[in-house]
Write a structure and sequence with these properties.
Order of helices and strands: EEEEEEEEHEHHHHHHHHH
Radius of gyration: 20 Å
Strand content: 15-25%
Mean pLDDT: 84
Shape: globular
Number of helices: 10
Low-confidence stretches: 1-17
Helix content: 25-40%
Strand order of the largest sheet: 1-8-3-6-9
Distance between the termini: 12 Å
């Protein structure tokens, strides 16, 4: 199995030719337990399991996927997959990783509500798609058809893929996502997105709720309510996720001590950092560093 660069936040842009998407096929050798290393990326993703069984972990959530199952991941969620069951045969999966602009740039402004689940890194818009559930049949059939283009030159299928992705998204929205979001005004969405960007830029600072609300131009109460509706979590839950992702970068890219990394990522107490890291990542910072370095 060939691993991409072992960074939790990938420093690559997923593109095929000049289009804002990429298609991947991965075969995991018999006997190998890790299927997909722990990472995240700013694009959304459809993961489709062709052969084998895996436990697909997205932050604190775990999903047991069998052959023919899939999962949709909104942008910027930490995820990985480990094989389970019989490891004597190879495991095979496909992934479509795509920029949200692939859909929104082709859509009239008055239809943007369909794509609210792609904003804000929403955990509640994470969707496992099990083949045993009849309502998923059309979506899974459309999704599997996408990967038939893998061996073709990009210019021969880009338009068809975009069209199929719209079909997949309509199905996903109708089945699972229509009730997860409420429409926000253009101004509110813009200000909340700026708030997410602000957290990314200032995650290592001692940010207060007052600071965050003021930056967004909202009262504290309205900010908390709107932020949770937009992202599916509270402002500080989101901030902690950002800090943990940044700590993963430092753990894999540097030899800095864990106490220093905790401080650089906005944690003023290393014990609290260790507990929080374990809760989000399912392992300790030192164990995570060791496991990632063995994959290099």
């Amino acid at each position: 199995m060939t691993h991409l660069k072992n960074l939790p936040v990938e420093n690559i842009i997923h593109r095929t030719g000049g289009s804002p998407f990429s298609l991947h096929r991965t075969v995991v050798d018999a006997g190998e337990s890790n299927a997909l290393y722990l990472h995240c990326h700013p694009e959304a993703e459809f993961f489709y399991l062709k052969k084998g069984d895996v436990v697909f972990r997205v932050e604190q959530q775990s999903y047991h996927l069998h052959s023919g199952d899939a999962i949709f991941l909104p942008p910027n969620l930490i995820h990985k997959a480990d094989r389970c069951g019989d490891l004597s045969a190879a495991c095979e999966y496909y992934a479509l990783v795509f920029s949200t602009h692939l859909l929104t740039d082709c859509t009239p402004v008055d239809r943007f509500g369909f794509f609210m689940p792609l904003q804000g890194n929403r955990m509640n818009c994470l969707c496992p798609l099990y083949a045993k559930e009849p309502q998923n049949a059309r979506l899974l059939t459309s999704l599997s058809a996408v990967f038939e283009h893998l061996q073709q030159p990009p210019e021969t299928f880009c338009l068809a893929l975009t069209g199929t992705l719209f079909i997949c998204w309509q199905e996903l929205y109708n089945l699972y996502l229509s009730g997860t979001v409420k429409a926000s005004s253009d101004r509110e969405s813009s200000e909340l997105q700026k708030s997410l960007d602000y957290m990314m830029a200032h995650y290592n600072e001692a940010l207060s709720l007052s600071d965050l609300a003021k930056n967004a131009g909202f009262s504290e109460g309205y900010y908390c309510h709107s932020f949770k509706r937009f992202t599916g979590c509270s402002p500080f839950e989101y901030l902690i996720r950002v800090r943990i992702v940044k700590s993963c970068e430092l753990l894999t890219q540097t030899d800095k001590k864990i106490t220093e990394i905790a401080s650089l990522c906005g944690f003023n107490n290393v014990s609290y950092f260790n507990r929080t890291f374990h809760r989000v990542m399912g392992t300790t910072p030192s164990a995570y560093r060791k496991s990632m370095r063995t994959k290099r």
